[in-house]
Each structure stands twice: as structure tokens, then as C-alpha cells.
Specification:
The complex is a heterodimer of chains A (426) and B (127). With 426 residues, chain A is α/β, with parallel strands linked by helices. In chain A, 20% of the residues lie in helices and 32% in strands. In chain B, a hairpin with an 8-residue loop joins strand 1 and strand 2. By secondary structure, chain B is an alpha+beta fold. In chain B, 28% of the residues are buried. The chains are: A alpha/beta (426), B alpha+beta (127).
Chain lengths: 426, 127
Amino acid sequence: MNFKKVDLLIIGGGPGGLAAAIKAKEEGLSNVIIVERSEELGGLLHQCIHNGFGLVYFKEDLTGPEYGYKFIQRVNELEINYLLKTMVINLTPQKEVLAINGEQGVIRLHPKAIVLAMGCRERTRFNIHIPGTRPAGVFTAGTAQRFINVEGYIPGKEIVILGSGDIGMIMARRLILEGAEVKAVAEVLPYVGGLIRNEVQCLIDFKIPLFLGHTVVNIQGLSRINAVTIAKVDEERRPVSGTEKKIKCDTLLLSVGLIPENELSLQAGIKLDPTTGGPFVDETMQTTVSGIFAAGNVVHVHDLVDDVTTDGELAGLNAAKYVHGRLYSAKKQITVKPGGNIRYVVPSRISNQGAVTLYMRVSHPAEKVEITVDGKPSRQVIVKKSFPFVRPSETIRIYLSEKKLSTLDDTINELRVNCVRKGEKK
Amino acid sequence: MRKNEKAIICLMCPRACHTKLIIGNRGNVERIVGAKCDIGKEYVLKEYTCPERILTTTVRTSKFSHPLLSVRTDRFVPKKLLKKCMILLSEVKIEPSIKIGEVVLYNILGTGANIIATQELNENKVI
């Protein structure tokens, strides 16, 4: 492998990075290299042994390892280079890269383009400030998932789970099937955080008590956790005194959200969206630094791996175009901004050179709504789409066709996305 | 005699209808309320009479560096048998090599479902 002549460097060998590498290679880039810090390609898919993957992309119901296997096979078929157990530790705006591993020591690379595919990490006890002692037995749900599904250890026997995200609910089922007792799932919001399918098949199926509008207010135990106290919260998410309930347990799992992993992006001077925690990207997945693209959960946290794959392909395609000098850089870009009941929209800017899919999440659940995309300042309505319901846990896609975008008048420099009740004025 | 009701959430599409089954004296379903389509009605009826699931879990391997192999049933199995399947699978230990999709255990508990590998286990590495 010649590190001096890398066309495209992919940082991260999970689903986003694999898809980007495959697409770029298929587009004719000869020297593509994936740098992965763990021992194998595939990222988190190895530990996600449940099914539900690939329904959109492959029209098949696959488990995580099966989904990952298809892409790893393709990487090998295309003879794409990869370095395992190798970590990128520095990245500059000029795309100079410093990576390290145990065999080669320090590796310097200067690729023509980069795709960031570092994914995300879990929020911990200390991100959400749970009071109490600091005993063993408090894990993030993903860590417990790795222990149970890959390493072969069960983290405990009497479990309380905080957070009703998908990983938390899936771990509740997994622990019960492996013989543990799940005593409670507490969720600070008044509704379940993950997919309804998981609420039914992971919680209701196994009669696991679900406490909505509750949080953990105290962790007890010296060397090992022996109990938690949960309490109701008010609208401001403050615990309501008098509602405390002590639950004996030997393990607390946290499924309280994911944060895109962007330390390298910051080093490279890439601007991040404070809402998503990921880089601002345009419709080609290019960040605010020329030649550096991003894909998957490093941009925003996705519900489905299928969408991460699609993101990766888009980033790989455009990175290849960039290296070939065929990625047209628009003089004028239109910013895309979230309006009423829209938490965020990706991409955050478009250069109007073809169809674009906008990905967005709402701030709170609503029924019978319309999502509109309006041009500013002329208030031209570009798209209006009805939804019987919207939920923060489910990504909404709005497709802007090339034809629709070609009708934009020249004065438009911003698109505003709004979610309003049918018949209501913005 | 008073009629019973059973609430079931339909999972056939993201709409997730909250349906209600009106149950007659002999446990028969007399009426389904709240399902917005025929696919949904069929699903909730099945959920009431004999709910089925795909089981995904792991089995032990003899390989020190990769102590577990992920597996699943190749078709639906009755929900009430999931725990029994788990107990049976806790006794299974497999030797490398095994290919993805290969059967680890045939016809588990007479359900007609086979347990298949969802990972590869080679002498050298798991892909």
C-alpha cells in the first residue's frame, strides 16, 4: 500500500464508510483506503444481532451481521484497501492525516479527498448528570450489548433501564431471553423514544413495566450498584418530590441518546450544526471544508442503517467526482433551515444542481400535519406534503425533484421547512 | 356473560393502529375495531390466536477469540416457545468453520424452523 498516493481516505469502517468506499471504487477511484480503529470492518453491526436491517435497501429482513457481511464481501471483491486497529489522531483543513497503529507506528497520509464516517457514541451517566454514588454496574446499553452478544458476559441479573431508545428496548428483550430480570424501563419523555415495533416486541411481549415521564434521580451502592430511585418529572423535566420509588437492582443500563463523534472534524475546522452535533453538509455530503465529505451517524443520528448506506454512497460518489475534478462548485447556495416544529434538516444548504432528499426530525409528536418547504424571501411554496402523524423518533424524508427545484425563482436564497397542523397558519 | 376486549397494536406499517378485538364467550374474535386495512386485520387476528416471532440470539463456539456466534430462526416461531428455544440453544456449542446461512440446529422444538448462522466463523477470523 502506498500511503503517498491515496485518492480517497475513509475514516471509519462501519456501514457508512463501507458504502462510501464501495461507491468510490465503483466510480473508478483506484486508491481508496478505509482506516478502522477496531479489529474488524462492519462497525456496530456485529453486535446488533437482532433483525430489522435492510428492509429498505435490500427489501429483505436481515440481522446486523448479515447486513454488514454483504458490504464486507463487496469490499473484498473490489480489493479495497483497509487498515484495521488503526486510529486517525489528527486531521488538518489541508487534509493532512496522522494515523497510528501497533504495526506501522505513525502513518502520514495526504489524500485528495476524505469521507468522515466515524459514527456516533453513546451518552453516558455523566452527560445526563445522574446523582448518587459511583459504583460498578452502570453501563450504556450499547456496551451491555457488546458484552452479551460478542464477548459472552451478562452484565447483571436484576436490570433497570433508563431511556426507551431502540437500543434500550432491544437490550431489555435480550436480557430477558438470556435469563435476567428487567425490573423497569424509565423514560423521561411522555412517549416512547424508539420505534413502536420495538415497544411491542421488546417491552409489551415480555410484560416489562414502562414508566413514562420518569427518570432516575439516585444511584445507590458502594462497590456495586444495589438500587436506583426513579421519580416522575414535570414539564420542565424536574423530578416531582413525593413520587420517588426505590427499585432494587444490580445493573443500570442507559439508553439516553447518541452523539456524533466529531473531534477530528473540529480539528479540520469543519463547522458543526449545534442541534445534530454533526457537520453542516450540502446535498453532495460535502462539509464546510472543500474535499472533506461526511456520511452516516457522524452527520446526524439515523433510525435505519439503510439510510446510513444511502448516505455513504452519496458521499463516496461525490468524493470520487471531486477527485476527478467533476464536482461542480456552485457560486450561489441556498440555505435550508428548520422552521416550526422541525428540530433539524439535513442537508443545510443546496446548490440546486439536481434532485435532493431532505432528512428531518420534528421536535414533538403531532397528528394530521402538513410539512411545507417554502422559498424565501418570495414565500414560494415548493413542496407541501400531508402526514397523518409525525414523531421525533422517526426521520421524515422530503424529496425535492429536479423539476420542482428548477421552478425556484432567482431571488430565493433560503428554504424554510415547517410542520403545521392542517388548516393552521404558520 | 360480559364480553372481553383485547388491545393489540398493529405493526404492519408505521401508522401503528391501536386496535381492539372484541372477544366472544368461547374466546372467539367477534369484531376487530380500529384496524384501518385488511392486512392489519389479518395481522391482529394472528397476533391474538398465535403470535409468532423471529428469534435472534447467539450460541457458544469452541473458539477462544470468538466465544459466540450470532444465529436466528429461518422462519417465525410461536412467541410462547421463545424461552424454551433459548434454554435448548444454551446447550449448543459449535466448532469452526461455519458459513453464514448454514444450519446450526434443525427443526427446533418441532416448529419446522431451523437455527441458522448469521455470521461466518472461520479458523482464523469471524467476518
